């Protein structure tokens, strides 16, 4: 049976050359970068070069790149680090209803600790309401955190517009962007966009899991979450994961080199997929109809009346791997927080399916997927039990 992996927004297979490089580093350069002898110096040089490679890709200074254990830690560090560091200046923080859990839950925790947190609403296409942002911005707002590309729907947020608004209405507020789903997919540089803090995770761009970085603009200070040996300029103590750092740098470089090709090919796949889905009366596309505002590598749709888990497993039996965000615990269907924020009905919010693909898939794969999707939907329809119970 043909296997088709359409869950690249969850994680990606690693580049072969990244695996090879990491194996070599693990085998040969096992020194601790803090050690004073030759093995330490070699490891320290590898970390330094990795930092320079990533900085060159992002057109920033090497010391603006701080290594962490991934997207979740970078988001926690940026948000808690800025909220605590600048709490003397103000207690107001702003984010949105559609952020990744590692942002959303961090702000919910800060709200419990006494910070005043505004969760901005989104419109029906999944874009953060800019009027609501303008209303929420105050002189004592210290941090605004808005993601670049939503990991569920693929909706692109107007990052440059938000940065401009911040400068005009709340010049002291820092701007954090979770760019995990945008780096290597969209052409942008944090310095050009007016971003102060930016999160990246390596495993979403064909690097290793458990490693990421936080872009931290020169001049921005954060309270560290981890104390100890003072690595990463005191921001993140703990012996550096040298092989993962080297592997991530290589993956970032390759992904940035491929970005234009990635965008072109996945855009063609996206338009084929949206056309095929819009021709099926049972299905409804989520997000914006304007393709300029949607990331090319993600398509999201609902099958109202059909729980997402049923379709995920039916497709899995055909060797096709897709995703649902509406996690199902002990049979109780939980509607997607993102789709609910977009004003979708419960029925639509429990039946979301995410397709995400990369340069490893082809237009031919998309044709095959569309065929299998039609077949599966037709086969499932008669027993659409949820619909029957309405
Ligand atoms: C995957 C993801 C994260 C979390 O990254 P991890 O490295 O898995 O912790 C954060 N934000 C977004 C948008 C993501 O897609």
TrEMBL record:
Main enzyme class: transferase
Would the keyword Transferase turn up in this protein's UniProt record? yes
This protein's superkingdom?
Answer: Bacteria
Instruction: Give a GO molecular function annotation for the protein.
Output: cysteine desulfurase activity
Its cofactor is:
pyridoxal 5'-phosphate
Keywords in alphabetical order, please. Answer: Pyridoxal phosphate, Transferase
Coiled-coil segments: none
Give the Enzyme Commission number. Answer: 2.8.1.7
PANTHER family per the record?
CYSTEINE DESULFURASE ISCS 2-RELATED, CYSTEINE DESULFURYLASE FAMILY MEMBER
Which family does the record claim for this protein? Belongs to the class-V pyridoxal-phosphate-dependent aminotransferase family.
Q: What is this protein called?
A: Cysteine desulfurase IscS
């Amino acid at each position: 049976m043909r296997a088709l992996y359409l869950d690249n927004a969850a994680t990606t297979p690693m580049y072969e050359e990244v695996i090879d490089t990491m194996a070599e580093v693990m085998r040969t350069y096992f020194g601790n970068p803090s050690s004073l002898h030759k093995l330490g110096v070699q490891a320290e040089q590898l970390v330094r070069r990795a930092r320079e490679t990533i900085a060159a890709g992002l057109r920033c200074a090497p010391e603006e790149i701080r290594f962490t254990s991934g997207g979740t830690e970078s988001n926690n560090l940026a948000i808690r680090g800025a909220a605590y560091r600048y709490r003397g200046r103000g207690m107001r923080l702003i984010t949105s209803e559609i952020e990744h859990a590692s942002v959303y839950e961090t702000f919910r925790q800060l709200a419990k600790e006494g910070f005043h947190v505004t969760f901005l609403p989104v419109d029906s296409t999944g874009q953060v309401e800019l009027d609501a942002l303008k209303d929420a911005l105050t002189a004592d707002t210290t941090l605004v955190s808005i993601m670049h590309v939503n990991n569920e729907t693929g909706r692109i947020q107007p990052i440059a517009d938000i940065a401009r608004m911040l400068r005009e209405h709340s010049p002291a507020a820092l701007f954090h962007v979770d760019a995990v789903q945008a780096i290597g997919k969209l052409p942008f540089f944090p310095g050009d966009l007016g971003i102060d803090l930016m999160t990246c995770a390596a495993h979403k761009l064909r690097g290793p899991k458990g490693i990421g970085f936080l872009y931290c603009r020169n001049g921005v200070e954060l309270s560290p979450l981890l104390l100890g040996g003072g690595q990463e300029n005191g921001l993140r103590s703990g012996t550096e994961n040298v092989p993962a750092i080297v592997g991530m740098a290589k993956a970032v470089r390759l992904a940035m080199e491929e970005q234009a090709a990635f965008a072109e090919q996945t855009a063609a796949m996206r338009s084929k997929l949206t056309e095929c889905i819009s021709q099926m009366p049972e299905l409804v596309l989520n997000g914006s109809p304007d393709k300029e505002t949607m990331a090319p590598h993600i398509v999201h749709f609902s099958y109202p009346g059909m729980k997402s888990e049923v379709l995920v497993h039916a497709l899995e039996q055909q060797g096709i791997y897709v995703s649902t965000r509406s996690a199902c615990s002990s049979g109780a269907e939980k509607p997607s927080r993102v789709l609910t924020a977009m004003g979708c009905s419960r029925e639509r919010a429990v039946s979301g399916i995410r397709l995400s693909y990369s340069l490893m898939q082809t237009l031919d794969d998309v044709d095959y997927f569309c065929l299998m999707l039609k077949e599966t939907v037709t086969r499932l329809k008669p027993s659409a039990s949820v619909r029957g119970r309405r």
